[in-house]
Amino acid sequence: MQINIFYGVISASVINLELVRGAIRAAQEENAPIIINIVQGQMSKHGDGEIISGIVRTLAARATVPVALNLDHGKDYERITHAFRHQFSSIMIDASEYPLEENIRRTKEVVTLCHSQNVTVEGEIGFIGQAANADEKKLDLFTRVEDAVYFFEATGVDAMAIAVGTVHGKYPSHLAPKIDFDRISQIKQATGKPLVLHGGSDSGEDNIRQAVACGINKINVCTDTFVGCKEGLKTILQETPDVDFMTMMINMETTAKNILQKYIYISGSSGKAANF
């Protein structure tokens, strides 16, 4: 296994003002770059892309660290173009459920659109499933090195999410996933391109550090932030039942900041803001 010295940038999922503020505060305190992430499903159910984009751009203009806005797991072309129109910095097209050639066709279509306005594109090859389905144990879903090379060459994507043992959601009984670090190193060596680890939550500090050392450049964090904020709200309500609503929202923001600050430190991106 070849080990290289890299650092990863945290991509923090958000759905509202408090989570955006928490993520940017975490980046500010660590002097780190940050990617604000919103999943297509979250955007369609709650955090409308136009509203989220406005919040992020306003707060990014006040920040002294680089802040990007990414659409995560864009599957519907209508939602992807919505994010494109509302000035998202980057867009992930997730066509991984399709056969390879159809995945390439759909991804290339988004690359053509986005690159016309210098918007970066992340694709996915292999299949990053759900913890609830124990997909992290299904080796046939993992990204193959030769497919990764072909996918980059055929689509022109700027980054690629790879399936190497992590999944979305919470792992059972806090069991960290078994990540295929050799596969990360092989894909990195074969492509020389930015690689993305989805399902960073609950993966374990050592796993994240080693994944970054092997070539992961972006780590997505969602579940830990959402669960932590929920538990924080439950605690404050139990301890102070008459707490006012604004105090609860400030608590949510601070909880998100603390969780993401930890991930920024683990990823090695603390102090790296000036690199962008």
From TrEMBL:
InterPro entries: Aldolase_TIM, Class_II_FBP_aldolase, FBA_II. It comes from the Bacteria. Pfam families: F_bP_aldolase. SUPFAM superfamilies: Aldolase. PANTHER family: D-TAGATOSE-1,6-BISPHOSPHATE ALDOLASE, D-TAGATOSE-1,6-BISPHOSPHATE ALDOLASE SUBUNIT GATY-RELATED. This is Class II fructose-bisphosphate aldolase. It comes from Candidatus Sodalis endolongispinus.
